[in-house]
Amino acid sequence: MFYWMESVQSYNSKGWNYMEQLHAFVDGGLSDPSFINAISGIVNRGCQDPPCGTGEVDGLLERSGYFYTVMSILIS
Fold first, then answer.
1. Full DSSP string of 38-75
2. Residue 66's pLDDT is what?
3. 3-state secondary structure at position 28
4. What's the Rg (C-alpha) of the chain?
5. Any residues with CB less than 8 A from the CB of 9 and at least 6 apart, and which?
6. What is the pTM of this model?
7. Burial class (CB in 10 A: 0-12, 13-18, 19+), 2
8. Are the C-beta atoms of 16 and 47 separated by less than 8 Å?
9. Is there a contact between 18 and 12 (Cβ–Cβ < 8 Å)?
10. pLDDT in tens, 31-44
């Protein structure tokens, strides 16, 4: 939880701000996978636009699938 609050929610780099992007994602109906991919990049590689000099995001497709699985459970 600490990592999420300190590193992800406060992320603001290269014109990409987590809170602004989160609001746009929600306002857009939670349907743009680029937000999920960016968050996966931040968590896994340290930037919103991998490979970030550290490599590709591990399990990018799976991460997106897991997100939508959880969202479908929470929404229903």
1. HHHHHHHHSSSSTTTTT-PPTTHHHHHHHHHHHHHHHH
2. 92
3. coil
4. 12
5. 18, 19
6. 0.83
7. exposed
8. no
9. yes
10. 888 999 999 999 99
CB 24 within 8 A of CB 33: no
User: What confidence tens digit (pLDDT) does each residue in 2-37 have?
Assistant: 888 899 999 999 999 999 999 999 999 988 889 999
CA gap 12, 20 in Å, rounded: 9
Tokens 């290269």 label which residue?
14
The total number of residues written for the chain in this structure: 76
Nearest to 18 by CA among 48, 45, 58: 48
Task: Return d(Cα 51, Cα 54) in angstroms, integer.
Answer: 6
pLDDT of residue 55: 84
